[in-house]
Write a structure and sequence with these properties.
The structure is a homodimer.
Chain A: E1 3-7, H1 16-28, E2 33-36, H2 41-54, E3 59-62, H3 66-71, E4 76-86, H4 87-101, E5 104-108, H5 117-120, E6 123-126, H6 134-146, E7 159-161, E8 169-174, E9 178-183, H7 187-222
Parallel strand pairs in A: 1-2, 1-5, 2-3, 4-5, 4-6
Antiparallel strand pairs in A: 7-8, 8-9
Helix pairs in contact in A: 1-2, 1-6
Chain lengths: 226, 226
Amino acid sequence: MMITVLRLGHRFERDKRISTHICLTARAFGADEVVFDVRDERVEDSIKRITDEWGGNFKVNFTENYKDFIKNFDGVSVHLTMYGLQVNDIIREISDKVNERKNMLIIVGGQKVESDVYFLTDYNVAIGNQPHSEVAALAVFLDRFFNGKELVRKFNGKIEVIPKAQGKEVLKNHSDFSVLRFKDFSLSFRIFNEIFCILFVNSLLHCLLNKVLYETVFLSVFGEVF
Amino acid sequence: MMITVLRLGHRFERDKRISTHICLTARAFGADEVVFDVRDERVEDSIKRITDEWGGNFKVNFTENYKDFIKNFDGVSVHLTMYGLQVNDIIREISDKVNERKNMLIIVGGQKVESDVYFLTDYNVAIGNQPHSEVAALAVFLDRFFNGKELVRKFNGKIEVIPKAQGKEVLKNHSDFSVLRFKDFSLSFRIFNEIFCILFVNSLLHCLLNKVLYETVFLSVFGEVF
């Protein structure tokens, strides 16, 4: 199954942060990509940085013609709008349809979505019929769709959070030498940890070098003596 | 029960839109007020406009000392953070506690929340342990807390959306003379509707005037003739 979010009406001057929140929410709640109808490299870059660090295969893409994109989408298309049918009433039907057809396109817009969109999609779904936020709507829709299972999905990133009742704990996957745990609050502890790792790797390298020197130089010179 | 959202770390230059989304989400998902630690009248004004039109008693307030505000809060305090315990595991316990103690304080911050906050609150709760959005976190937390019932709550506003499979339909409560239904797409229909109402009220007033004239002038002059 592939879940695509189509973000309409991004305004370059005003929407960088909201669009970034939409992308991060899409990623964290189980979508595979966000497609924009306006290119904004600032958003693409900041999402790429997060994905590099926190893992997953999430992508940000771009379409020149969003109406064709909706029409040609192979799967179930769902437009999130406060004017649509209540999510409570329709989510089961949508889940069944997506299980049949495999892919889902979720369309989120700003305040001014063209009226065509309401008629191009399979479903118009409201996360409540009050004005609020496309970020909130996307999060709740995906949470309902996945029944909360999206929140425990593994991303296999360089960093991973260990859930804690108080404070912060992060698992840092140093792919180069080891797996470290450190408490984010304690800078001194973190520095100590890093120094320890450097010394540890350093010692390993020394051992290796000694072994090589011993086997090549020492044995070839004094080997026959002993 | 009273639900307060405390929004920390609002930056005047950057956060107007995100903070507005937080307020709208809080309102739409059943909270009673948002309290800021930084005053921003632009956010307050835009939320007031929405509440005037769409109904409810939602308020935006301000505290000078958010740590005292958390310490003195009479109820259960929940800090939403990606480092906290998974919402899936803890939401039932929180619901039970809030049912006992009546009030709930939900704390949402930006990227840099002071470490004290993690130890001042009763719960640190993660809506997934990936980085995403405080708007998304607040929406999903409230949706889980209310089990989706918040989405069908009535706000008794001047406007109300009629959920529709396609297009938009709005119920406009003209408190002055009548309740009108119009389709938002059709401007001509809306204008016709308004004119019809004006004519209707006009006719009513004419009838009333005629009745008064008949009873006072006509009857007093010609009453005895017939």
